[in-house]
Amino acid sequence: MQIQASIQQDWGMIEHQAREQKMKQEELQSLEQSLLSMRTAMAESWGRVNLYQEMLQPVQDSLDGLRQKLEAIAGILAQVQQTGNHQLQTIEEMRFSSLVSCLVRLQHLE
After folding, report:
1. For residues 18 and 12, what is the distance between their CA atoms, to the nearest angstrom?
2. Would you state the pLDDT for residue 110?
3. Within 13 Å of residue 68, how many CA atoms lie on the same side as its CB?
4. CA atoms within 13 A on the CB side of 62
5. CA–CA separation, 36 vs 45, rounded Å?
6. Is the pTM here over 0.70, yes or no?
């Protein structure tokens, strides 16, 4: 009778351990499925990122070209401004020189 009780107790422990193992196995399968879903979502996200990069590259190239053109225009405008400043200075010098000449002539006339 004691052997039978011991066997039943051992059998109960085995069944309990089997249920726990099954629950852990189901939890592991659930975690594996969740991991697979996350990997799939991540792969889809990277696919979209790569697609966006491919779509944006021509825009980036165009913007780089525009920036180079604007920098060239800015350089030309700086040169034009320097030339304009030099011309204004020359005009002022010519006006001053003309004024001085007029004053000298007026003094000679007096």
Report:
1. 10
2. 66
3. 6
4. 5
5. 14
6. no
